[in-house]
Amino acid sequence: xxxxxxxxxxxxxxxxxxxxxxxxxxxxxxxxxxxxxxxxxxxxxxxxxxxxxxxxxxxxxxxxxxxxxxxxxxxxxxxxxxxxxxxxxxxxxxxxxxxxxxxxxxxxxxxxxxxxxxxxxxxxxxxxxxxxxxxxxxxxxxxxxxxxxxxxxxxxxxxxxxxxxxxxxxxxxxxxxxxxxxxxxxxxxxxxxxxxxxxxxxxxxxxxxxxxxxxxxxxxxxxxxxxxxxxxxxxxxxxxxxxxxxxxxxxxxxxxxxxxxxxxxxxxxxxxxxxxxxxxxxxxxxxxxxxxxxxxxxxxxxxxxxxxxxxxxxxxxxxxxxxxxxxxxxxxxxxxxxxxxxxxxxxxxxxxxxxxxxxxxxxxxxxxxxxxxxxxxxxxxxxxxxxxxxxxxxxxxxxxxxxxxxxxxxxxxxxxxxxxx
Length: 421
What we know:
This protein is mainly α. Helix content is 74%, strand content 4%. It has helices at 14-40, 42-49, 54-88, 96-107, 137-185, 194-215, 233-257, 259-290, 303-318, 322-373, 380-393, 400-420; strands at 111-117, 130-135, 221-222, 229-230.
């Protein structure tokens, strides 16, 4: 048995010593490999090459202290293993003395850590002035594992945050460059169009976020390191802003591409308006001739004014004023439609007045046939009523109101005479 502070430890057998040495040697190699893997990790390389700030600086300072401690502890581990190897090499078959030493090294509190001075208020006259912390190899490995996990969590989280930022930001930068190129081809920079300025603002904001992410990537990490995830909401917001601007730019590019077609449609609509205006004018003039005091508006004359505005579009196109071009084409389409509606209203009114006269004439003929069937054509009153209605309907211009009243009197007279007979 080997006496220890925590109690006696059973003496290891030679076979147990050899197996334990082999296992601990392999563990030591794995620890060395893990430390190398940590220092060659992209996150570690990034943090050592940067000047961290904010949350990253705080966690990186702790991590650097943890890594320094890991190497100190690994050095203590190797020292104990080297001492054990020396003892084991004394004899091919270790005796009690060697087994006692090896048991103490491999199972006991053989790892000597930092020596600390005992504060004066905790000392007594006969007690020590310093205390040395010790632990077993198993306790040391457990402590190293906890510290290693804490260090790797910071390194991995920083790498995740920065890598995700670079992925999103670089893609955004490419789309931003494409937007700038399109804006330049549209000539927006020359006139300092708001869309061009908005692209510049996004570029400046992205540069600011990139600088902050490079200095403090863990500021863009939500939650505790090792249990959270990257949070690139600022980049997403910029991407949303850019998407809206790109949609506007694409719309302006469509204005440029479709300019000739839209102008052609505008000219065609104005030509159709001219034809409609001519027809309405002819009908309007006929109504003024045929109908007395007609309730009809004048025919709007918008064609030439609209054609002048279409011609002026060429200047806006040449100066690459795409928003103005689009607004003007849209306004022209609306004004042409409105003008056509007003002209059509006049035409419809004119036709309705002429149709009303024709309807009244047709009704007069029908009532005369009815009077003949009722043998009333020789009746003086009936004849007088017919003649009054006829004269009104065939007089130019025709007073439709008076003619309607006369026709109604004729109808009523026929009805009265017919029922009396």
